[in-house]
Structures are given as C-alpha cells and as structure tokens.
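Lay summary. Proteins are chains of building blocks that fold into shapes, and those shapes determine what they do. In this project we predict the shape from the chain. Here is one chain we studied, written as its sequence of building blocks.
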Amino acid sequence: MKHTLAFALLLLTGTTLLAAPPPPPPPPGPPPEFAEVLALTDAQKAQAEQLHRALRERIEAAHEAFRQSFVAMLTPEQRAKFEVLEEVRKLRERRSSAPPPTR
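And here is the predicted shape, written in a compact code that computers can read:
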C-alpha cells in the first residue's frame, strides 16, 4: 500500500507540476475597469475592498467546512489517497508561487 501511494504521489507530482500554474487571484475590490467607468471615489474603492475581503473570508470558511465534512465521509483507504492528492496540490501551489529560477 505504501509503495502504491508513493508511486501515485510521484506520478501525480510529475504530471501535475508540469501543468501550467493557475493564474493568481484577482486583487481585492472592484475590477479596475469598473472603478474607472463608474468613477468610484477612493472611499468607495476602499469599501469595495472591505466587502471583497469579507466575502473571501466567508468563502474560505465554507471551503474548510466542506473539506472537513468531505474527509469525514471517506473510508480510511480513500482518506489516505486524498491526503496524497492534497500534498500534490500543496506542492503545485508552492511551485506556482515560487519565483522563476535565474539563469
């Protein structure tokens, strides 16, 4: 079982890390073109950023609650596989946030 998980991790890591990294999240607040077209004041931009941050926090909390419930319903074997997949995801996130290598 351990060898199978290690192989799966190696296989998934290799193929996943070669995939294009996901785009960065948008900055908080309204899109710049909205702010420009609507002629938002600095106070309105700041308020929109606060609303966006609050929304992001609620989404992250809901995602974590879902994750916990999802993991709780898995069998031990499924949970082990899920943990491998989570590690692969974390490796990919670290790779996408790392600065590009210098030559």
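What the prediction tells us: DSSP finds four helices and no strands in the chain.
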